Structures are given as structure tokens and as C-alpha cells.
Amino acid sequence: MIFVDHPENTSQTTTPEEGMEVDYPQEESPVSLINEDCINPMKDMRLEAEAIVRDVLFAVAKMFVSSNLDSALDVAYINVETREGNHYCLELNEAGLRVVGYAFDQVDDSLSNQYHETVYSLLDSLSPGYREAFGNALLKRLERLQQNGQ
């Protein structure tokens, strides 16, 4: 990005990779021109968790973001009851989702369950009832699309 300004308000900077001189206003530097959100987009995991719950609630018996376990920008906890009646506490962080307990609001630090990139993958591994409900919903949607297309 090159700024055109009055000559007295600019300084020249040489970019090491190209050996080019670029004029920047004195109050600006190349580093300050970068939107920090593009470099390190910190997601609010509680908001992500709420979106996950809304997305798959139709295919489980119960699912809600824990209000008893501390959530932060980098971690949130989701309680889920599968259609089979099994209870899980899920941890959501930048690495993905994983089971951290086998009861609501329970975190067992001795568990070392694998992370799943998506809630769909995690629930698919835990619940045949989820797989069936998800498959049925997908089939109904495809049927509606087919009917609307004719």
C-alpha cells in the first residue's frame, strides 16, 4: 500500500524483500497498516459454542453451553445428551472439540480423547441416533429441493 501525502509528512522505508523504497506518512508504519484481526483472529469460543448448539440441536436429545464451567475467549464447554441418553461434556477450543467428561459440567483431566474438527464428526462417532437424525434431515431437505426445482 503506498500513501501519497505531502513530502514533509513522509518518510521512506526500504522493504528488505524487494529493496524498494516506499513512502509512508510519518504517523503510519507498514506494521500499523495491517489489520490485526487478519493475523490473529481470536474467536470468542462461547459464541462459537452457541452457534454449534443451534446447528445440531435437532439431532440430539439435549444440548446447551455450560453455564457452570468457566468459558473464555479460548475455551467453552458444551453439555450434550445423545438420543441414546448418554451424557457428555465437550470442550471447544482452537484445536476443535473433544469429550472431557461423561456427565454434564464434568471435566476429567485424566481423559485424553482426540479432538474432532467439527461437531458433526464428534457426534457421528458418539451417537447412531445422531447419524440417523442427520441423515433423515438431509434426505428431507434434498426432497424439498427436488420438489421446488420441478
UniProtKB/TrEMBL annotation:
First and last residue of the signal peptide? none
Segments forming domain GSKIP: 46-145
Q: Which Gene3D superfamilies match?
A: Hypothetical protein (hspc210)
Please name one Pfam family that this protein belongs to: GSKIP_dom
The record's comment on protein family reads:
Belongs to the GSKIP family.
State what protein this is by name. Answer: GSKIP domain-containing protein
Q: Which organism is it from?
A: Umbra pygmaea
Q: What is the lineage of its organism?
A: Eukaryota, Metazoa, Chordata, Craniata, Vertebrata
